[in-house]
Amino acid sequence: MHVHRFAHQGDATVLSDPADLEEHELTERILDIGGRGLLAGLSAHALHNRQGLAGALSLAKKRAAGGESSLPRQIIYLAEGARLASRAKELGLDHIHAHFGTNSARVASYARMLGGPSFSFTVHGPEEFDRPEALDLSGKLALAEFCVTVSSFGRSQMLRWARSDDIGKVKVVHCGLDLNHWKSPPALPDGPLHLVAVGRFAEQKGFGLLIRAFAQAWKADPSLRLSLVGDGELRREIETIISSERMTQAVRLLGWQDEAGVRTAMDAAHALVTPSFAEGLPVVIMEAMARGRPVISTYIAGIPELVRPGREGWLVPAGDSESLAEAMLAAAATSRERMAQMGQSALQRVAQRHDIARSAEILSQLFIRAKG
Predict the structure, then answer these.
(1) How far apart, in whole angstroms, are the C-alpha atoms of residue 369 and residue 372?
(2) What angle do the packed helices 71-91 and 103-113 form, to 10 degrees?
(3) Residue 240 φ then ψ, to 5°
(4) Cα 312 to the chain's mean position, in Å?
(5) Mapping DSSP to helix (H, G, I), strand (E, B) and coil, where does residue 8 land?
(6) pTM of this prediction?
(7) Cα separations (Å) of 106 from 90, 112, 291, 365?
(8) Which of 150, 97, 168 is nearest to 368 (CA)?
(9) Domains (ranges, CATH) in the chain?
(10) How would DSSP label each residue in 52-80?
């Protein structure tokens, strides 16, 4: 299938990963046309599709009243939808897939109402499920051909807001990994337990809890080591705790890393720790499992669908620092042979459930059906 990429906007100056830069070059940014261009496009629809525009304006007012965003912002999204509909016609595109249930699905739904092609959207969570009514997930699903969720948990959350006639539209398509990029994982390293955590240093990702739980476990077993990959608003707090607990030799802050850097950090560790409070289904867990690394994570969202306690890792209640520290110590007490077995189980499970070729095949069949 030929895929034409759209985005609201973009800034190449904040990108450094070669793959990201390549995608930036291949992507058409709707807002690059400017305010006048968007207004002209919307005016053209007013002349040629008054009924469609009237319906879209009515929906914009409803969404604004529901708290999704202000009416002026809804009008901007409506203008983007007009632009998207026009570009789809010019390019001969017969379906639009929005990769989030938030702004992108909003624009795609307006494009559909203005005569654009059929559309579908993916809901990842947790953001969509934090404000389902305000985001009008039910209304977007009613206008869409189908909705994709990345886990059975995600599907259950969408079904909470789906109208009875739309329940059959909600499908599960797992996020996929290009396993060729993650193949041939190295053996587990020698030495005491070395954990790695990857993500934004934010409370939602559990990094504040993580560093406190690690301090507790480290006091019981000073041989433990932890590497943190990422950055964010909690960095200063994390640095303060590391210093106050005198863990500078036990904890390393590796900063933001590209895919190769993340892979290197995972290969140097025995296990991944991801103590999130809210998630969809973290890709970083799939990546660690593809490198044959067991996972310490939380019983939330789609994570238990992938990580089975005692087989691919350890799961603890979200927000429970005592249980998290105990899981770290349990991993430290696990033999290297048993850790390797868990890592092999993790590799097999992610290959079975999250091969990008299989996910793409399922999604392509949904596109074909949507086009009739």
Answers:
(1) 5
(2) 60
(3) -65, -45
(4) 21
(5) coil
(6) 0.92
(7) 21, 10, 37, 23
(8) 97
(9) 5-176+356-370 (3.40.50), 179-353 (3.40.50.2000)
(10) HHHHHHHHHHHHHHTTSS-HHHHHHHHHH
Contact 299, 315 (CB under 8 A): yes
Which stretches within the chain are classed as H helix?
A: 18-26, 34-48, 50-65, 71-91, 103-113, 127-130, 137-143, 152-161, 207-220, 235-244, 259-267, 283-290, 303-306, 321-332, 336-353, 356-370
Q: How many CA atoms lie within 13 A of 24 on its CB side?
A: 14
Positive or negative CA dihedral for 297, 301, 306, 309?
positive
Q: CA-CA distance, 109 to 78, in Å (whole number)? A: 9
Over residues 280-307, the mean pLDDT reads 97
Tokens of 125: 């969570």
Rounded Cα distance, 99 and 147, in Å: 10
pLDDT tens digits, 14-30: 888 888 899 999 999 99
Q: Which helix (H) or strand (E) holds 315?
A: strand 313-316
Run of H or E residues at 206:
none
Report whether pLDDT(372) > 80.
no
For the chain, what is the largest distance between any 2 Cα atoms, rounded to a whole number of angstroms? 73
Q: What residue type is assigned to position 251 of the chain?
A: V
CA–CA gap between residue 31 and residue 151 (Å, rounded)? 32
Measured distance CA(99)–CA(122) in Å, rounded: 5
